[in-house]
Amino acid sequence: MLPVSPQSRTRRGPDVPGELTVARADGTSSTLPVDMSLISETVSQVLEHRAGTPDRTVCAAWHRWLSGHVRLLAPIAVEQAPRWDDPQRMRLVEDTAAHAGRMLAAGLPADRHAAYVHLQELARECRGLLGLVLDQPGDGR
User: Fold this and answer.
1) Which phi and psi angles does 30 have, rounded to 5°?
2) In terms of pLDDT, which residue wins out, 28 or 90?
3) What is the 3-state secondary structure (H, E, C) of the chain?
4) pTM higher than the cut 0.90
5) Shortest CA distance to 66 belongs to which of 106, 28, 30?
6) N or C of the chain: less Cβ packing under 10 Å?
7) Which of 91, 93, 100, 77 lies closest to 24 in space, CA to CA?
8) Residue 80: CA atoms inside 13 Å, Cβ hemisphere, count?
9) What angle do CA 135, 31, 93 make, to 5 degrees?
10) Average pLDDT over the chain, rounded to an integer
11) Closest residue by Cα to residue 126 from 50, 58, 54, 45
């Protein structure tokens, strides 16, 4: 049985804006339609404690969801990182995005146990990218 996608809900998540203001490299900002609660729910669903290992079909569905989230978040995080004017933070963002990209390129392992471990790692990278995207200079975080 396939998991129920957080994307199947009919409205945005509670208390989370459906739009994200992104700091662009040229100093301007853009507003993008990004549902942060959807991404958080996907990550939580994958990382949720469960007895046993999900079957291959479930793992494949989760991989599709996380892949989309990572492909959305990584370029946003990398583009807005220079606004922090912090070389360490820039390296963190670049390393996180690069590692997530390598994980996506490797694809989902054939063995379902290895696939589940891969998904948990990808979910943690996705959560890290989400945090980097949400953390804005000067907002007190």
Assistant:
1) -135, 150
2) 90
3) CCCCCHHHCCCCCCCCCCCEEEECCCCCEEEECCCHHHHHHHHHHHHCCCCCCCCHHHHHHHHHHHHHHHHHHHHHHHHHHHHHCCHHHHHHHHHHHHHHHHHHHHCCCCCHHHHHHHHHHHHHHHHHHHHHHHCCCCCCC
4) no
5) 106
6) N
7) 77
8) 22
9) 35
10) 83
11) 45
Q: Show the tokens assigned to 81.
A: 């990182």
Confidence of residue 82 (pLDDT cuts 50, 70, 90): confident
| Site of tokens 């993008």 | 32
Q: Does residue 112 register a pLDDT over 80? A: yes
What is the Cα gyration radius of the chain? Answer: 16
Mean pLDDT calculated for residue range 100-107: 96
The three-point CA angle 34-40-44 to 5° equals 155
* Nearest partner of 56 among 10, 115, 4, 106, judged by Cα: 115
Extract long-range pairs of 81-89: CB within 8 Å, 24+ residues apart. 81/132, 82/25, 83/23, 83/27, 83/137, 84/137, 85/137
Query: Per the structure block, which two tokens stand in for 80?
Result: 């807005």
Tokens coding 19? 């739009």
